[in-house]
Amino acid sequence: MQHERFAQLAGVGGFVLDLDDDRLHWSAACCALHGLPAGHQPTLEEAIGYFAPEAQLQLYAAFKELRTRGGRIDLELPLLTASDARLWVRVVAEAEPSGARAQRIVGAMQDVTERRSAQEQERRSMALLHGAMDALEQPFALYDPEDRLVYFNEAFRDALALLGDTLRAGLRYEDLLHELLERQALPPEADEAWVRRQVQARRQLGRAEHSELQTLADGRVQRVIERLMPDGHVASLRIDLSELVQARRAAESAAEAKGQFVANISHEIRTPLNAVLGMLQLLARTPLDARQQDYQRKAEGAARALLAILNDTLDFSKIEAGRMELDPQPFELDALLQELDLLLRPLLGDKPVALRLERDARLPRWLLGDALRLRQVLVNLGSNAIKFTAQGEVGVRLQAIAIEPGRVQLRVEVRDTGIGISAEQQQRLFRSFTQAEAGITRRYGGTGLGLVISQRLVALMHGELELHSTEGQGSCFAFNLWLPRGAVPDSAPLDPPPRDGERLRGLRLLLVEDHPLNQQVARELLQLEGATVQVLGNGREALEHLLAGGAVDAVLMDLQMPELDGFSATRRLREAGFGLPIIAMTANASSSDRQACLAAGMNDHVGKPFDLHELVGVLLRHTPGGTPSPLAPALRRGVDPGEAAIDEAGALARLGGRADVYASLIERWLAELPAQAQALRDARDAGPLLHALKGLAGTLGALRLAAALQAAEAGGDAERASALAALQASHEPLQAMAQRLRAQAAPPPVGAAAEDGLARLRELLSHNDAAVLDALPALRPRLSHERYRELAQLVEDFDFPAALALIDSWHA
Q1: Average pLDDT, rounded, for the chain
Q2: Which residues of 691-726 are buried (b: 16+ CB within 10 A; e: fewer)?
Q3: Distance CA 469, CA 385 (A)
Q4: Sign of the torsion angle spanned by Cα atoms 174, 176, 182, 185
Q5: SS3 state of residue 388
Q6: Are 183 and 167 a contacting pair, CB within 8 Å?
Q7: Range in 287-301, 399-413, 577-591 with the lowest mean pLDDT
Q8: Residues in Cβ contact with 372 at an 8 Å cutoff, skipping those fewer than 6 apart
Q9: Nearest CA to 512 among 592, 572, 595?
Q10: 580: which residues sit within 8 A by CB, 6+ positions away?
Q11: 609: cis peptide before it, omega within 30°?
Q12: If we measure between CA atoms, which residue out of 362, 471, 461, 375 comes closest to residue 414?
């Protein structure tokens, strides 16, 4: 009875069929299974009749087989109970022999309805899943924990159609790659080592997701995303990005063409504008009556206004194209304020407006940053404040809000008591070519670019431009910047040069310029400063003149000239051994142009239209009697062993103010230091190694070490031993500096203004929505330059998982 109870609980009912008289005996559990009272003993026909018609045929055939041949059956069949309940039952039976024939059949029936329903649901789910995967337009495949292909959709088969019947379930991932390698259907750089790396990357997936951008041999571009599932299977998705990549490249080409067009137009406008301004300056030095002087001043003011619009347009174009770069150099705060005063005070005219420039006494005298762009922002904000203030006060204040070793947080505020800006107007104030309202443009003029450019320049400096304003009461624009302390450069003059008199008296200059008007302007202005000026029309003439023994103190070199351009002429002069100063004078005014000039061997760069005082200052820095050039590396003039051990400011300046890059270079130097020291001990001819190490030490600003290496390069064993000792002694101070620089270069927290945009971007990224490409540019002014560039690179490469991880890391 106990066994019968257990069987009933388990849903298992027993039965016995006597083959002599076909009598059937059911257990109580078997009766319950059929919805019948315990003790009911049906006939064989009745019992089989509870099964579905097709199942009845199976049972008759199975029992016949047991009668005649014996053995065992195991079937799962549909059954309709006496209470009309539909079940699935498992029927297991075997024949018990008695002598040469079977005497009876003993069996059991079990309700397997739930299991069959679960299996059916799983089958339907798998069919639905397979249908969904087949509906994907992108190739999808599933691999088992042993890296064998389990399933792939039609898009996967189509993408790898060249494999034919080789592509099948059970194919190992490594074998699949080898098949594709043989058919040259992998990226061009793929080889056996590449295949091994791919397989190894799969084995090391862990819980991570692997994502890779591949350019195939036929030029198609695809993103391969692979994710490890909890049960060990690997899901692989290939997204064809060819059209998107082509569209992006086309957009980049269009942007490049636009930028080149703007640059060319800028050059073509600057050339005649340079002549206009130059002629007006020359005219001002001639006898003029009061009316003529008024005409001259107004004409020069209009020309400079046109130049300002041109500069704004060019800057905006560069910012929009992401080509605006900063050029951090040591600068003096007091000099910055003096320049600002000179530029803003004339704008006051006869308005009853006071201009106040304030500097926090706690601020260091010298800082490291792009003074030109900082001044541009202050001039934009200050000139706007003056423009919209009829009476009262305009103030510029520089304040220290945090001071740390090696750096300071500078707060800049530009306040006015002008017309103010309503809350509604503030919403559209930073749009390109837009002012607060149309009437303002008619009344006050302006392109509406100044604030947009200022906002984005501040963002490039890792700050955020704030606006606080009340209509009718005035406005305050403000931003905070972290700036390193700047060392006083060798070129800093102890006394300002005189503003009057012939500052270039006795200087022999060679002007290489092909435009006649520019020749006249530069020649006459420089002659008025006391210089002797010889003019030649192209680089070939200049090269021939100097090779023939022409005596000059400096060369002013245009870049775009017929026959031989300025770059080529400079390279040939340097190759011929000429060390005289060569200064570029060109309408190409970007920082990349300046770097190209320096790379060609020029000493400095002056843009057109040039400012005479600036040009005179550059000439004085580079010629005998002037101050040394700030662009000449320390090792070019030799290293004084008595100098500071490490010139941090100089090294940072050479590296564009990038503390993170400086730290990386030091860390790489320290990692290679033991091997370099051993190589120096073992080398028979240490000259090349000493020369290379000297250059690296100079780049790092390790002046004493560079001096020791320089001495060893020219000396003997004793000097080499001293250099080796200096090399080993450099480890500790450089390591400490690298740690401090790493802390200094830590990025600021994400600003509140960026959070909403990042949340929207994160939502799009998590859904692999290509609309993220349209949403991204709105974050440019709200994120630091480095953060935006890193995020944009991942998004534009369609590496959405990595972009999500990057955003999450900013909030970690």
Answers
A1: 79
A2: eebbebbbbbbbbbbbbbbbbbbeeeeebbeebbeb
A3: 12
A4: negative
A5: coil
A6: no
A7: 577-591
A8: 327
A9: 572
A10: 552, 553, 554, 555
A11: yes
A12: 375
> What confidence category does residue 777 fall into, taking pLDDT thresholds of 50, 70 and 90?
confident
The encoded tokens of residue 361 equal 């006494």
Reported pTM: 0.39
The span from the CA of 650 to the CA of 669, in Å, is: 18
583 contacts: CB under 8 Å, gap ≥ 6: 554, 555, 556, 557, 602, 603, 604, 605, 606, 618, 619, 622
Q: Is the pLDDT of residue 417 over 90?
A: yes
Contact in structure between 458 and 479 (CB atoms under 8 Å): yes
Q: What digits encode the pLDDT tens for the residues 336-354? A: 888 888 778 888 888 899 9
Angle (CA) 530-532-537 rounded to 5° is: 135
Cβ count near 59 (within 10 Å): 18
Q: Could you give phi then psi for residue 423, rounded to 5 degrees?
A: -60, -40
Which residue type does 254 have? A
For the stretch 570-596, pLDDT in tens is: 999 988 888 889 999 876 556 667 778
Look at residues 568, 559, 570 and name the one whose alpha carbon lies nearest to residue 607.
Answer: 559
Read off φ and ψ for residue 218, nearest 5 degrees.
-85, 5
How far, in Å, CA of 188 to CA of 81, rounded?
68
Reported as a pLDDT band with limits 50, 70 and 90, residue 56 is very high
Sign, CA torsion 635/638/641/642: negative
Amino acid, res. 690: L
pLDDT in tens, 81-137: 999 999 999 999 998 887 667 788 999 999 999 998 888 887 887 777 777 777 677
**DSSP element (H, E) containing 223:** strand 221-228
Can you tell me whether residue 614 is helix, strand or coil? helix
* 24 bridge partner residues: 17
* pLDDT of 490 strictly over 60: no
DSSP E strand stretches across 130-220: 140-143, 149-152, 209-215
What 3-state class would DSSP assign to 369?
A: strand
Cα within 13 Å of Cα(217), Cβ side: 11
Say if CB 551 and CB 527 are below 8 A apart.
no
Buried-state track 270-286, b at ≥16 Cβ within 10 A, e below 16: bbebbbbbbbbbeeeee
Instruction: Please list, in sequence order, all residues whose beta carbon lies within 8 angstroms of the beta carbon of residue 131, skipping any fewer than 6 positions away.
Output: none
Query: Tokens for 640?
Result: 């004084």
For the chain, the first-to-last Cα distance in angstroms comes to 66
**pLDDT reported for residue 1:** 45
- Copy the structure tokens of residue 237: 């998705």
